[in-house]
């Protein structure tokens, strides 16, 4: 057997060469923390991209980005509605509870880890307005979702309307935001603030970054508190220019979109190969396939790495830098299992 | 006026070329989080350096390293004795309180931000053993201290003895541990676990790193909990190999010691130049000098960047990569103010 | 319409005369906090009742008792398996999250708010053993449950066995423990520590108390930490003798059992009257009945106070001091709706 | 030796007969939590007393009252300036840190545990306005102080002015507010909201109560959040009418003032007897006296209970119900030591 072909996670990808080059270029003596020119340029760069004034912070991980966002949106004694399968609920080791000081995640159901405004309204309506019950303060959705579904701008806006009606804040976990943008072709403004989103965790790590995400505040009044919480959480790196450099490199020349398109295209190929075994429509870079235990074993024997996702299901994730021959091999293999 | 000569912080330094090279070498597709070969080698490398079995974790910042260490050593309802001028008290935006869930920092006094066992015992003796009073659980010292003083192995061991007697855990903030080792010439084992230290925050960021510190557990039973807390704090970077690579690069060929020696030597020169204006003995890479406001203004007009440190005092920090001509210029300037 | 007939909650009851008398007897100058003779006698009294050495603390409310118990059983970064309809999840405003500093409640399903060992095992098996997932540390059950079901000693013991196997701690919320004891006739030892329970919230407020519950530690090593957390939560009343007095008065002459029997008997009558409308078997002092909206309105028009419990369901709770004529009237009314 | 004469704490007092009578009168079936008529009347009664609209909550302990007040005034990432000897810092087992989720107490110095506006300003000026430093959000003073000093209305107002200037919230720990009012003769309005106080912990436990304090919000917008936090902390007693009854009984017929005057008068007598041994002026019901170890032993041998307060100092507290002969005996004894 040759080298492993990793479809386990887009976290297994390499950083994009432009990211490494930008970091090398930042490798001089400079101002510490976020006082350098690169860090200070993030607001303007993101404002330009989002077509309005925004405030942006760099953060080393998506978990920290999400947890910081939720901490500024929800006090300790209230709750956040999210999908039962959301990353914030299942894959962050309780970071939202840690950063919010114990806010409660209020789990809702929906297809492919996606929530409709109606799903959320139903969950909200269950919560009696009573001092004995934790009351909701925010909604968090993931776009693209944990099952590779993307929201349209209209779907986000329907949730944004609900949030406004119920006086809730609205967070989007965009660890794979680039993939959602690439899939829908929507403008980043339409997918976020025009649809009522208050804060976006804008992911770059799965998109060619080395270790940098952006927190984008459409309600810019929230950014100062977030920066204090970021420092308090030990996330204000003293050489922040190396994080800013990554984000800027990926936004440059639309590399973030090219990377997302490449990953999405690979996933689409795999989805087609999976045929009727496909569990969720492929709207980003993740592919969920029904496989038996022996089929899974056979795939692994051929060198493919991937996660089992419940009984009889497998998850394959395509990275921005996934070798074409690995994708072709897996597509062929999926066609024959 | 030419380019700024930064003596404000060793955080302003560049990463060491070997660090950048090691990161570039890690820039391939690999296992995520801390499952890669570099991350998995840290325990063995640190065990070899410390002459005993230790467990080591990478962490992106010194603030996170300290706060994580304190969180595993002290429950929410107890306290940590540290110096009034300690970094954990003054410069971490309350990270220790955040990570420990509200443990109390119990401030003690001592010369040059250094605590003797007697200083600590005096502080401990003030705390009535009563359910109304927060009881201490741990001691934290900084080596080298915030005023550039280094502990001898014997001084640390005296505190370690006290900790054992009083059943307290013992943490060392070693953001400038390399400088202390270089200054004292003591072995790293003698300065830490042989002297009773339970956990060391072993700093690399101020020593040529880009964004990586090590948490070294001499009580290895603490490491598993620390790793959970690390993830929960959003500090488990998905591409952790890039942090491990930095630490390994700096430990290789004793670069960490060479870097510390270079910085210490520069500081010693400045200390000599400062003469009777010198406030604290120079035992690491920080120099505290009495200057009037007009002298400070004159130094700044000459291009030197530094922090005022209370009224009539200035702090100059020498980095591992501080240009020799900058040091010479500042020495000359200090000799003439 | 006459005076309200309150079946809304056993919290609406009056304190038992013996409770008031015991408090009046304690109304002299005495030692503060828990240093008085009454408070100091609790350990012995409870040890006698439970047929082994236990440690007991008074607490003013059931919410505080539960949250304190969970905080000593579960660290901030782990979780507690409980029923989806448990009081700790739904009716304590997030107190468990507050006291545990953000531990996650892991919701399981079971009939009548009761969990079997199998229900719990199924929930535990869903949790991948991974640093990204919050891991469980404890199980909490309510006895009698929120739907008036009581556990047999054997049912509790099956859960205790599971807890031991999975190395989890075991808490019982006994806000209506007296009702469960009265219903099952089991010994308090068999229902708790002999079945593997580590801590019991032993309720007295719904049982004739004014404002006092007991926290009973079968693992007596936990009590010291609980007492510190109790003080830290502002629950160490300076005149604690008035809480101890209540508990002692209710335990005296088996008043707690008599009160529970009276309440259970009333509930049984109502359950019989409800006939096929009854939703859950009556095994304590709560009765859940299917009623239409117009039937509910009619009952209210007759002076009965009760809670709607989801669509088409009503909850009636019988207190220890519920007037017999009120019970008879409600039974008659339920027979006719 | 006869019975102990307790001067250790006003917590050792008995409840006032009117308090017990009011509680007995409340001992009927009633609405749970704070929905009863007594609880609902607190706002109006306190508004009348304070000559403006206020919102008031009952709380079982002074520690909980203080910690709740601070939690609504200060976010987790900021700090509270208080005296180094304040009850919130020394005698509440870290309750402020628990309730605020880790806010930092920022200790200032001042005579007799009293802070002047200048003392506070000096402390505030030490805090660099920097993301690395915890920034202040609130000021907390104790009136009467832990050393029995009372603030005049003008002294409070000077601090209130400072708070407004620096945009800080202002809390008064009034565990012995009655004693301060009795001593100064000032109106309660002048001592609180007219002087800029946002929240008052209004103590009744040391004043003849059994277990009830009031939280009085002059910024009434804070009360709703405080009530949620109160429930979340397990402090929403289900039979809250028994707490409301106590407060109302003590406010009736100026009993709270009569009780405070009695206690203050006893303390004044003791202060006179202590003569030049007196350490702090007696402005409430506490008396601090210089005594040698052998003198302290001699006093204890005569049956007097009191606390040592540092080396060579003793604290005597006079309760509202302190027997006159005990006061006379202690005065005589102090005159002869």
Q: What characteristics describe this protein?
A:
homotetramer, 337 residues, 7-stranded mixed β-sheet, 3-stranded antiparallel β-sheet
Brief summary of the model shown:
With 337 residues, the first copy, chain A, is of the alpha/beta class. Helix content of chain A is 42%, strand content 16%.
What is the secondary structure topology, with strand pairs?
The structure is a homotetramer of 337-residue chains.
Chain A: E1 5-6, H1 17-25, H2 37-50, E2 55-59, H3 62-73, E3 78-83, H4 87-90, H5 95-100, E4 104-108, H6 117-125, E5 135-142, H7 153-165, E6 169-174, H8 177-184, H9 188-191, E7 199-202, E8 213-217, H10 223-232, H11 241-251, H12 255-274, E9 286-290, H13 293-301, E10 304-305, E11 307-308, E12 313-317, H14 324-336
Parallel strand pairs in A: 1-10, 3-4, 3-5, 5-6, 6-7
Antiparallel strand pairs in A: 2-8, 7-8, 9-12, 11-12
């Amino acid at each position: 057997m040759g080298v492993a072909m990793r479809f386990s996670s887009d976290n297994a990808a390499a950083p994009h060469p432009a990211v490494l080059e930008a970091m090398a270029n930042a490798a001089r003596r400079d101002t510490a923390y976020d006082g350098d020119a690169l860090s200070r340029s993030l607001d303007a760069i993101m404002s330009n991209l989002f077509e309005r004034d925004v405030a942006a912070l760099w953060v080393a991980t998506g978990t920290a980005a999400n947890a910081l966002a939720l901490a500024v949106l929800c006090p300790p004694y209230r709750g956040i509605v999210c999908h039962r399968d959301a990353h914030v609920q299942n894959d962050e080791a309780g970071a939202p509870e840690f950063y919010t000081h114990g806010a409660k995640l209020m789990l809702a159901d929906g297809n492919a880890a996606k929530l409709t405004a109606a799903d959320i309204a139903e969950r909200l309506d269950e919560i009696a307005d009573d001092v004995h019950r934790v009351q909701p303060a925010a909604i968090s959705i993931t776009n693209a979702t944990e099952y590779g579904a993307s929201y349209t701008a209209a779907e986000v806006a329907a949730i944004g309307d609900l949030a406004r009606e119920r006086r809730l804040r609205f967070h989007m976990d965009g660890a794979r935001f680039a993939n959602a943008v690439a899939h829908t072709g929507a403008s980043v403004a339409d997918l976020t603030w025009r649809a009522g989103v208050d804060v976006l965790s804008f992911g770059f790590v799965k998109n060619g970054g080395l270790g940098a995400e952006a927190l984008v505040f459409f309600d810019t009044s929230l950014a100062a508190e977030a920066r204090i919480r970021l420092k308090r959480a030990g996330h204000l790196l003293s050489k922040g220019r190396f994080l800013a450099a990554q984000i800027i490199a990926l936004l440059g020349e639309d590399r973030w979109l090219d990377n997302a398109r490449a990953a999405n295209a690979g996933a689409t190929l795999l989805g087609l190969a999976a045929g009727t075994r496909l569990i969720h429509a492929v709207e980003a870079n993740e592919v969920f396939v029904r496989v038996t235990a022996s089929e899974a074993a056979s795939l692994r024997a051929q060198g493919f790495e991937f996660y089992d996702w419940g009984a009889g299901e497998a998850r394959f994730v395509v990275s921005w830098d996934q070798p074409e021959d690995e994708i072709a091999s897996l597509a062929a293999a999926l066609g024959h299992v």
